[in-house]
Amino acid sequence: MSGDPLSVAVTGAGGRMGREVLAAAADREGVAVAFAVNRSPVEPVAGVAVEDADDLADLLASEEPDVLVDFTGPASAVAYAEACADAGVPLVTGTTGFADAQLDSLRAASDAVPVLKASNFARGVAALRRAVREAAAALPGYDVELTETHHNAKRDAPSGTAKSILDDVEDVREDLDERVHGREGDAPRSPGEVGVHARRAGDVTGEHEVLLAGNRETLELTHRAGDRGVFAEGALDAAAWLAGRDPGWYGFGDVLDADGDA
Predict the structure, then answer these.
(1) Strand pairing category for 143-150 and 178-181
(2) Do residues 235 and 116 make contact, with C-beta atoms less than 8 angstroms apart?
């Protein structure tokens, strides 16, 4: 099978990211789309006919893709993960907004198949997160504020990427244990808080800025995505890496670490 193209199934084919993944797959050598599904009927995307998502289990069994790439919603992603677990198909998901119980269900699927979940597949965001961790640890006592901006149709706020960055900050700064979302009225900063601000406007692909301030100085770390293609390319990188792995729970950092070791 070493010479065979990577066979990829795509869910949410009619969505913003589903379309980007299919377009990226069409342009990438060594990748073939096994099938694409969507909850509602849509016209072919990037030359690929889109099937009914209700038929996913049958399609997984008949087409036997190497990996499934998912950018949908939390409930759908959990259902697709369960179908992948039953079919023995690895799963890459960039879906965000999971409740704790839904995350537990997603993790349960990783007992049967490899599951790679990431809130962001941009390599620059992975570098940003590592830089934020280093900066937050190196600047004890500095105030931290996070601002994220996305298009006006994004449902979850703050973004999954923002939440991951906040987790990174809190991991290295035990003194920061309260997330304050926005400010209004008499709202001075209190010890232990991280300010979180979510903006929704126009067709902004994604921006994340971390501000650290103290000791008469400020440090700003920012990532801006030019278009969604960067996320689709990263998801396909993750899919190629994940196919054939042992069952387990993986992140995009595992892919980047493997690239660095190559």
Answers:
(1) unpaired
(2) no
What are the b/e assignments for 107-146, b being 16+ CB within 10 Å? eebbebbbbbbbbbbbbebbebbeebbebbeebeebbbbb
Number of residues that make up the chain: 262
Mean confidence (pLDDT) of the chain:
95
Catalytic residue among 150, 197, 208, 223: 150
Which two three-digit tokens encode residue 205? Answer: 């692909």
Active-site hit among 117, 151, 154, 163:
154
Residue 2 has pLDDT above 60, yes or no: no
Give the global pTM.
0.83
Please count the CA atoms within 13 angstroms of the CA of 110 that sit on its side-chain side: 17
The reported pLDDT for the residue numbered 1 is 44
> Tens digits of per-residue pLDDT, 201-237?
999 999 999 999 999 999 999 999 999 999 999 999 9
> Could you give the CA distance from residue 96 to residue 72 in angstroms, rounded to a whole number?
8
Decide if 154 is catalytic. Answer: yes
CA pair distance 252, 171, nearest whole angstrom? 18
Q: Which residues contact 101 (CB under 8 A, 6 or more apart)?
A: none
